[in-house]
Design brief:
The protein is mostly helical. The chain has one domain. Helix content is 77%, strand content 0%. It contains 8 helices and no strands. α4 runs antiparallel to α7 and α7 crosses α8. The longest helix is centred in the N-terminal third of the chain and has 35 residues. It is globular, with a radius of gyration of 20 Å.
Length: 172
Amino acid sequence: MSLAAKVKNEIVTVGLTTLFFASWFCMMVLLKKLVLSEYEIRVGNLSVALLGALVVAKVVLIMENIPIGSRLRARSGLFHIAMRTLMYALGVFLVLLVEKAFEARHEYGGFGSALANVWHHKDMPHVWATAICVAGALLMFNTFFIIRRHVGKRRLRLMFISPLPEQTKDDL
């Protein structure tokens, strides 16, 4: 594969993955706006959602390429979905905690003190809500990853653009 083809493939892969996470994160911002509008609180984090989608997409794509051992490879697809989602979601949660501690370092007299007290910060419900929504996006992404691994990229694409097959008795 030529360098130009590799670059094009990387741009398409990162772009589509970013689009997937951007749709989730923008929906999260929209839901926050709708819920908080009742209390006349303005939320304007669309650019943060798009930047976060790009970062999460690239990290997830890098993590996909980390080789796993033969013992883990022998596990079920459900195990892989659960473990990947748990690992990625825990990473996201830790990053959110560190970010919140960094923002609150002036309130608590330094980063270490802020990190120790971040659980009592007024924005912790926001951190939890964001972590839960991102975990949902990661769960869906990892599910599609396993399905794509089993059926192939072409078949997965065809599943979504082809008409539904007739339902049989076995489907019920």
